[in-house]
Design a protein that fits this description.
eight-stranded mixed sheet; 8 helices; 15 strands; alpha+beta; homodimer; 261 residues
């Protein structure tokens, strides 16, 4: 069975059934997590685990020969040709603060290379997905093909990073130098920023310390929209770590020249 | 005629008809604004102006005796008892980068004090509104009453600011010191962060250099939800400038003690 847009839609709906009822639940709670030594109601952890369970069940049913790597429930069959990579809620901090820029990420790798992926945002009702070398965003039932911007120069680029505080030491200095060069920089969108890059509204995303499940699903969405995503040395991004995504080869080269050590 | 939730809904719909078709229009355009000396397609400016025109027309029809202060089309009748304050698109940078955390702000002042207001986010379909001392968020046709969190200590608080780069000199040092004290800080949400404070998912918002139209609409949404919003010296916030919004008096005091000069 090939991977299709409709399979991603099925995964997105199954995940949304677990995440959406818990999004903005527990407002007014003083402190999530442990309270007086007792684990308190923690909607994001519950949502994370339940959504990954639902996603894994569908993958196992449709693709029993494939491996799975998930943020919450670990790895199985990583030696298989095809491995699914899942982050049920990317952008936990957006989730707990009520901001609808988190997403459910599911990607598929073949011999280690990301070949299909989705980012679903159930509060807005958006689904970004890439299959067969095409990248789309679905909203209100309509598919629009994603195409990156044509921006080639840092001085004309809009850049995102989750927060500059994640860059340490020399990497922070190099990142700060790029902030001085770009037209506009913004913080705080995790997976949503990469999808806006694929859609042509953001030109550059630079991040550090990513896990494979933070990026694998997004790679086909970016690449099939015409963008480039690698680590800071220009190698394939599927392993995570330090990541640059850019709308054009020229912009990617300019950013990589400034970020690599 | 009194101001009602339904009047805010009418304003929100009229604004959405102008903003939403222009949101994420022009993707792939290299550089918004002037191109080769010729003004290029600039969706955010068009949306801003057209939405404010639509809002002013409805206000003038329903409240002909009231004054109006708008970001785009100036001031009329500021000496009246009642003055409406409009920012058709608060969060221009979110708008141009495709991130759905901008909002249409409309507030009503009586003798200079904000008594009713709305924030509408048409892409998500959310309407935050306050009338008659009650604060609500409407989503999918359902009204939920807003209630702030009970967080009283900086060490348990989640804080937002649009970007720390807006704080200059000593204010930046004082702001950075608060970042060291809070549980979590996040950047980049403009009006949306104040609404999440009213809804109980964010505890503290600190900003600088606001205009009246950036804050007036939000004041009743925060206050009617039980929150506190003032300038850094504890005075009424309607004039804009340096703003602190907090979920509780204790948290407000703690933040104000660190921010005021």
């Amino acid at each position: 069975m090939p991977v299709t847009r409709d399979f991603f839609l099925e995964l997105a709906n199954a995940a949304a059934a677990e995440t959406l009822p818990r999004f903005r639940a527990g407002g007014g709670i003083d402190d999530k997590g442990i309270k007086g030594g007792v684990a308190a109601f923690d909607p994001v952890t519950e949502a994370d685990r339940a959504a990954e369970t639902a996603i894994r069940a569908l993958i196992t049913r449709h693709f029993p020969d494939h491996g799975i790597l998930g943020e919450e429930h670990g790895a199985t069959g990583l030696d298989r040709d095809h491995v699914w990579v899942i982050d049920p809620i990317d952008g936990t901090r957006a989730f707990i603060t009520g901001i609808p820029v988190w997403g459910t990420l599911v990607g598929l790798t073949e011999h280690g290379k990301a070949i299909a992926g989705m980012m679903a945002q159930p509060f807005t009702g958006e689904l970004f997905h890439a299959v067969d070398g095409k990248s789309f965003r679905t909203f209100n039932g309509v598919d629009v093909e994603n195409t990156v911007s044509g921006v080639t120069e840092l001085s004309k680029a809009t850049m995102f990073t989750t927060t500059p505080h994640l860059f340490k030491g020399a990497a922070r200095e190099r990142y700060d130098a790029i902030e001085q060069k770009v037209k506009l920089f913004r913080y705080g969108c995790d997976c949503y920023a990469y999808c806006m890059l694929a859609a042509g509204f953001v030109d550059l995303v630079i991040e550090t310390a990513l896990q494979p499940y933070d990026i694998v699903a997004l790679v086909p969405i970016i690449e099939a929209a015409g963008g480039i995503v690698t680590d800071w040395d220009g190698s394939r991004p599927e392993k995570g770590g330090d990541i640059i995504a850019a709308s054009t080869p020229q912009l990617h080269q300019a950013a990589m020249a400034m970020m690599r050590s």
